[in-house]
């Protein structure tokens, strides 16, 4: 797998309602990408910025693409797949342009010392998925009984898309899917 950065540039002003809708759609898209097994690490940028340039260059920004609002770090098979994934980003419907660029660790290309045992990206688990018989009851158990944070059930607009995500700790989420949905997606029987 290769690593890519998706730079998201917002080129037009959005109303508060449009911003809220865009955010809802982007969050659902990110969760779906992660649920589909893609390594995707989104970073939303604050509007606060300072452009630092050499003394020989004018400090005015020359970027005509708008404001850089987010950077997504993505692992994909190749550049073509990364572009294909970027083309599904819901921000495109809200005036967002996405610049896809491959990136590498600069230490990997030099003789700079690396940490002992370091081989680039560390293996990690970022999502645990459980199949449940009753999503509503399970939501109440994990949210109300165990006190896990959640936005509730999302994806109900899709026939087999309803899911509840819970924050377990930094960079670790729990996803509860109806067993029937998992069966449909995997092609395996429910039993």
Instruction: Fill in the CATH topology of the largest domain.
Output: Alpha-Beta Plaits
Give the helices and strands as they follow along the chain: EHEEHEEHEEEH
Strand content: 25-35%
If helices are DSSP runs of H or I spanning 4 or more residues, what is the number of helices? 4
Description:
With 191 residues, the chain is an alpha+beta fold. It has two domains: 2-51 and 63-102, 2-Layer Sandwich (Alpha-Beta Plaits); 127-186, 2,3-Dihydroxybiphenyl 1,2-Dioxygenase, domain 1 (Roll). The chain is 25% helix and 30% strand. The chain contains four helices and eight strands. The protein has helices spanning 16-35, 79-86, 135-145, 179-186; strands at residues 2-10, 40-44, 67-76, 96-102, 127-132, 149-154, 163-169, 172-178. The strands form two sheets. The protein has a four-stranded antiparallel β-sheet with strand order 2-3-1-4. Strands 5-8-7-6 form a four-stranded mixed β-sheet, with helices on both faces. The model has no long low-confidence stretch (mean pLDDT 84).
List the helices and strands and how they pair.
Layout: E1 2-10, H1 16-35, E2 40-44, E3 67-76, H2 79-86, E4 96-102, E5 127-132, H3 135-145, E6 149-154, E7 163-169, E8 172-178, H4 179-186
